[in-house]
Amino acid sequence: VKRAVQLDVASRFQESLVCYQEGIDLLLQVVKATTDEAKKHRYRQKISEYMTRAEDIKKHIEKEKQDGKYHKQIRIEENATGFGYEKLFHEYLTEIVSEVWVEDPYIRQVHQASRYLLYNFLRFCEMLIKGPCKVKTIHLLTSYDEGIGRSQQMTALEEIKQSLSNYGVTLNIDFSSSIHDREIRFNNGWMIKIGRGLDYFKKPQGRFSIGYCDFDLRPCHETTVDIFHTKHTKKM
């Protein structure tokens, strides 16, 4: 709760809200375990104060979203888990989302054991198909792989494209030799920038290890995720 107040004062409202909610849950457990009625009364007063502030913050965040002024930053720590694509994107994949843009220079068959970028992109596409959005078109801008890897890259992307078409989704693929930024945009205005792009997961320990299939259980590389609305970025 002290951390919530500190973040609140620093105007880091999204993080503050999470801390308030966790603090309230812990205080409710304390109330249940306390037999002293005077202490219970004080705890309940504090819980009421924190719940009121948490509701005010929720309203403030919602207004920022509506005004396009919302900016959320997520810091993923080294070896952290629980950051699958659904965790990051689901909040912004509303039902009106029908078109998605992915700009990432490394959606290709990189010959490094630590990277599975084409599979990461496939996993991202699977998330889009599961909804609740109704995606009809995905635009991918990436760079060509080098040497013999290019044919493998093209074969894999074509297979993903054909598979998506079975679900009524069109994949448009373009290549650029000068692309450096990593960015994902939805046609409801939300824009997500990830320092490492879609490649923030560590290599699984083996094909039959926990986290190989479920990305929520896969350890991550350290990276930062910034979420904006295009209304705000245009004003900036």
UniProtKB/TrEMBL annotation:
Record domain MIT: where: 1-66
Classification via SMART domains: MIT
Protein name per its UniProtKB record: MITD1 protein
Organism of this sequence: Leucopsar rothschildi (Bali myna)
Gene: Mitd1
